Amino acid sequence: MLQYLTIPVTPFAQNCSIVWCSETNKAAIIDPGGDLEKLTKAIADRNLQLEAIWLTHAHIDHAGGVAELASKLNLPIIGPHVGDQFWIDRLADQSRMFNFPLSKPFTPNRWLVDGDTVQIGNSTLNVRHCPGHTPGHVVFHSPEAQRAFVGDVLFVGSMGRTDFPGGDHDTLIDSIRNRLWPMGNETVFIPGHGPEGSFGEERRRNPYVRDLQF
């Protein structure tokens, strides 16, 4: 069974998630934006075997620690979609803009596309390409655990910004309604910032994407 631990990192309180297979203790880390010592300690404390970095998108608070962590631990970088190459190339500029530690560009070992899967131990997660916040944003969904790691696509009562380069409001709305909602109302989502929620509750209450006939 898939288990996870979410740890806020960086001054932006970005939700980095460590996910692992309880049968094998093999783990992946989603969006290690920074505070790497805190993250590696949490992994060591649980005796997990970290095998990969999974990336939802390449904004600095999500991707700022990727190159350093991958280099130190010889980890493959999985994701995001190639549409975020622009943001990866600009990581150093993003670091300076937001006063983050200098982050270097990197080349993912594997770009992801809609319909892909990723695996950790005996747990398989589905990949959905959900552009709108960034062009290459992806989401990781575990049907067995009824959990979705959605980055900055959706928040409780809100949704991702679309005013950065490559963002598009209508595209983000389409991603949420046509790629997240089919995962099921009971699915719990782990957003890039803030508390967890369920897709059903957001369909009922979120002012940006609620279904008026729900």
UniProtKB/TrEMBL annotation:
<keyword id="KW-0378">Hydrolase</keyword>
<keyword id="KW-0479">Metal-binding</keyword>
<dbReference type="GO" id="GO:0016787">
    <property type="term" value="F:hydrolase activity"/>
</dbReference>
<dbReference type="InterPro" id="IPR036866">
    <property type="entry name" value="RibonucZ/Hydroxyglut_hydro"/>
</dbReference>
<dbReference type="Pfam" id="PF00753">
    <property type="entry name" value="Lactamase_B"/>
</dbReference>
<feature type="domain" description="Metallo-beta-lactamase">
    <location>
        <begin position="13"/>
        <end position="193"/>
    </location>
</feature>
<dbReference type="GO" id="GO:0046872">
    <property type="term" value="F:metal ion binding"/>
</dbReference>
<keyword id="KW-0862">Zinc</keyword>
<feature type="region of interest" description="Disordered">
    <location>
        <begin position="192"/>
        <end position="214"/>
    </location>
</feature>
<protein>
    <submittedName>
        <fullName>MBL fold metallo-hydrolase</fullName>
    </submittedName>
</protein>
<dbReference type="InterPro" id="IPR001279">
    <property type="entry name" value="Metallo-B-lactamas"/>
</dbReference>
<dbReference type="InterPro" id="IPR051453">
    <property type="entry name" value="MBL_Glyoxalase_II"/>
</dbReference>
